[in-house]
Amino acid sequence: MPLPPFDPADPLGIDDLLQPEDLAVRDTVRRWAADRVLPYVAEWYETGELPGIRELARELGSIGALGMSLSGYGCAGASAVQYGLACLELEAADSGIRSLVSVQGSLAMYAIHRYGSEEQKQNWLPRMAAGEVIGCFGLTEPDHGSDPASMRTHAKRDGGDWVLTGRKMWITNGSVAGVAVVWAQTEDGIRGFVVPTESPGFSAPEIKHKLSLRASVTSELVLDEVRLPADAVLPEVTGLRGPLSCLSHARYGIVWGSMGAARSCFEAAVDYAKSREQFGRPIGGFQLTQAKLADMAVELHKGILLAHHLGRRMDAGRLRPEQVSFGKLNNVREAIDICRTARTILGANGISLEYPIMRHSTNLESVLTYEGTVEMHQLVLGKALTGLDAFR
């Protein structure tokens, strides 16, 4: 039997591991991103705006991309691998778009789906799955990022109500959200609250002057004695286990998504190397350029294989948080390295928004930090490998 031809876009034949329904999900999201994001994202990035975000959310809901790995309540019930493929395609367009989807589905919706009451699920999830309501997730604070146990936001009982006071920082979707899942200290430990953003005392000023994730809405959340009914609390979890499990679910999407940004830069570098001529020949014909492209391809497709492996473990109910840390740590670091190498192949053109490389490079600096810095994931793995806790 003759061997199949070598495919430069899939050198390891990873597509052979995918089912037809997996490919259908991937192709649907890729077409949507090509039509609705790629023609405009450089301008959005340059102006630091994401116009029409509510319309984009509704469109993402219409293709089943919001909360897509959740079941029921209007969610698609897709597999973890299918959700990962969607994240890859979205981040190949822009990290900001993937962040919109990740925060909506893997943080806000996931928290309500896993820990909420039936009334909370019925009230919020169908509208969020359709993109009619955008959600955000309030955990990080101005003075407490990697150490959420020390958060200052607190909720106190007042008769039959809860009263929330505090601030959250670097919150994706905050200024456009209709609902916020906010974590706060209580006398019983850390609890999650479902906060309608029209509640008196709630405000979400947008953070400006970002040099990364510019095609994304990032906000501060200010809670000034926000009064909520007793049933606003997520009833099924107490303690850090709640928000950390949500973060683990979202980090899984980053394992895939970061490879989308890397793929975009790699493809741009290959195309450029084949057409750019120096010393009378395409630069792709020089050994040093080919060495760079080969190394980039190896790390890119190793990262996709790792993401696929973790996705299959998640679908089998066997994915541990430490394994998600493994994937996030490796894939984001390698994606950044691929983007930087791609920039060297494009030379000065690599810093132009005519090409995607500098945009992806700066976006990935945020992806490297949020949902667990390099240092935190190193310590998670270090503890798992040695049994010794270096956090304290």
From TrEMBL:
Q: Which Gene3D superfamilies match?
A: Acyl-CoA dehydrogenase/oxidase, N-terminal domain, Butyryl-CoA Dehydrogenase, subunit A, domain 2, Butyryl-CoA Dehydrogenase, subunit A, domain 3
Domain of life according to the entry:
Bacteria
Acyl-CoA oxidase/dehydrogenase middle domain: which residues? 136-226
Flavoprotein listed as a keyword: yes
Pfam families annotated for this entry?
Acyl-CoA_dh_1, Acyl-CoA_dh_M, Acyl-CoA_dh_N
Q: Where is the Acyl-CoA dehydrogenase/oxidase N-terminal domain?
A: 20-132
Domain Acyl-CoA dehydrogenase/oxidase C-terminal stretches: 239-385
A molecular function (GO) term: fatty-acyl-CoA binding
One GO biological process term:
fatty acid beta-oxidation using acyl-CoA dehydrogenase
Q: Which family does it belong to?
A: Belongs to the acyl-CoA dehydrogenase family.
Name this protein carries in UniProt: Acyl-CoA dehydrogenase family protein
Tell me the lineage of the source organism.
Bacteria, Bacillati, Actinomycetota, Actinomycetes, Kitasatosporales
